[in-house]
Amino acid sequence: MKILALDATSGACSVALYSNGQTTERFVQAERDHTQRLLPMVDEVLAEAQLGLSDLDAFAVSRGPGSFTGLRIAISCVQGLAFSADKPVVPVSSLAALALGARRAHPQWGGSPIVAMLDARMQQVYWGIYGIEMPNGSLISEAVQNPEQVLLSLSETKLTSTYFGAGPGWHYEALGKARAAELDLNALIHARDIAELAVPLYRAGEMVSAEALEPVYLRNEVTWQKRQKIRS
């Protein structure tokens, strides 16, 4: 199985190739120029593996939530590639990929739940809780909330085991009241984790056509406001 994954959800962009159990990646931490960086990175990864687009089984991309602009860049890029190659796309949760990357970076966290958070601006965060047995699915519905609402939601989930926190969304002072055992505020989303999460989804048939691929924003009013600005 060969899956090419792309991400530009946060302050980084990356491309990864999963090929028969092995994953290679190009990763650049950059707030801008994602549009100019992604396609050359795709070319590099494929050239290194001596593969063409036609050799792939599918593409994978972070479906969100995350930066509106970053999501649109990565999704548009994948749509173009998948359409030209006539291949399906596997949408993967950005938060699930963030959690998997943090688990990979911190093996000492073991199988404990990871609360992944991205800064949604406007004093809110995107967040979810991810266990080791079902890394693609949050233990609660992925949400956009302010820190106080997050604390209330965490108390209502009644997590009985130690949990860890990952992602820049944890920077809000109010979240210091949470009882996370350890935090990694520098955790970022990697395409390699999107690729690895895409493998079981592909096997389960959870893929879409390039035309049907849609981002998940969680905060619909942001989309509406941006569209209104564009129209005006």
TrEMBL record:
Gene3D superfamilies: 3.30.420.40. The keyword Disulfide bond does not apply. InterPro entries: ATPase_NBD, Gcp-like_dom, T6A_TsaB. The keyword Nucleotide-binding does not apply. Keywords: Acyltransferase, Transferase. Pfam families: TsaD. GO terms for molecular function: tRNA N(6)-L-threonylcarbamoyladenine synthase activity. It comes from the Bacteria. CDD domains: ASKHA_NBD_TsaB. Residues 29-154 form the Gcp-like domain. Belongs to the KAE1 / TsaD family. TsaB subfamily. NCBIfam families: T6A_YeaZ (TIGR03725). This is tRNA threonylcarbamoyladenosine biosynthesis protein TsaB. It comes from Microbulbifer variabilis. The gene is tsaB.
